[in-house]
Amino acid sequence: MKLKATLFIFPLFLVFFSFLSVNASSYTYSWNLTELPQPISGEHVMAILETEDYVLVKTDKGIRRSTDWENWEYVLNLTSDIQPWYVFDRLPNGWIYASFNDPIKHYVSKDNGTTWTEIITNIWYGSFNAITQLPNGTILATPHSKNDGGIIWATDDGLNWHIWKNLTEIGRNIGWLNSTERHRHAHHVFYVEGFGLFAVGGEGINTTVLPKNKKTVYYDDSSPYGDTWKAMGEGIATVDYVVLPNGILLFPDYDVVEDIKYWNGENLINLNVLTFYSPHFSPAIFRTVYKQNLNAIIIGCCLRDTYRQGGIILLTDDLKQHYIIENVKSLNGIYKEYYVFDGLGNNVYIVKKEYNATSGETQEVSLFKLTINKTLESSSSQDVTSTITEMVRQLTVAFLTLILVIACVEMVSKHVV
Question: Which of 83, 350, 352, 380 is deepest in the core (most CB within 10 A)?
Answer without folding.
Answer: 350
